[in-house]
Amino acid sequence: MNYCFIGVDISKLWLDVAICPNLEEGVVQNFQVTNCVKGIRSLIKRCRKMKSNLWFCFEHTGNYGLLLSHLLEDESLQYSAIPALEIKRSIGITRGKNDQIDASRIAVYGATHKHKLTESKLGSEVLLRVKTLLSHREQLSKQSRQWQNALKSYQVSSEVTDLKDLVRNTKALITQLKKRIEKVEKQIEQAILGEQELKKKYQQAVSVKGVGSLIAAYFLVYTNNFTAFDNPRKFNSFAGLAPFTHTSGTSIRGKTRTSNLRNKKMKALLFRGAFSASRSDCEMRRYYLRKTEEGKSHLCVINAIACKLVYRIFAVVNRTTPYVPLVR
Known about the structure:
Blueprint: E1 3-10, E2 14-20, E3 29-34, H1 37-47, E4 53-59, H2 66-74, E5 78-82, H3 84-90, H4 99-112, H5 125-157, H6 164-193, H7 196-206, H8 213-222, H9 232-239, E6 243-248, E7 252-258, H10 264-280, H11 282-293, H12 298-319
Parallel strand pairs: 1-4, 4-5
Antiparallel strand pairs: 1-2, 2-3, 6-7
């Protein structure tokens, strides 16, 4: 099927648009609309005059692209939200940039890589709420860590000067932040348990030893309720757990290692889960001891355990049954 590719560069207030019917013609139109309902509807109306199948492409920009994604789905139009780094590395050496040029590059990227474009879909309203609450929780946790570090500094300084009020107020602030974090965590769990499909997969995920409520919630968000990834190997690559070889000819024989292109948050969470599983799960504990005795480094074994957790989560979700340990 032939498509006309629409490249959109998204900013807070504006959408810069480029229309590329095919690689031979290149970009035939450039224009700008406001990033609001009225502006996006005018964009869709103008693009439909092309009288061909439309495929919209834009960078994954978080909240600024939500309205565009929502209205495109309302109009049953296909679109792909593509990582910015993927587009940047695909266009080779470039000089200069502005929003119109970026929109043109995105449109040409779509026309060039149409064979590998996958249609993006927004998650459910509940999943979007969970994602926002998780982001809010992360902000609160960051603030809590900052104030805890500040408290240590104040306590040291209080040895030589009177800082009792400052120490007391900081402790109260930390306590307040911890309560807010607990409240947000309850809201996340309530949102997930309130939707049957999410609840089922969430409960299956947390049945795996080492996988807590936070890891399970992030799994639902990053996999779009286990629809964005069709196998655990791809998710391990996304999280930066999958090892890759590093060789070239006969001269370079580097160690097999994980990639720096990873979701750092997900990797950190899975490492915490792996630490827990290496202590609480009999099978994982035996695996950890066996591999360390063979000379494997601690972090290398923890990375392998984190990979195993991902495989187990995908297995229980695909099987639609809770995890049953083989070793008790």
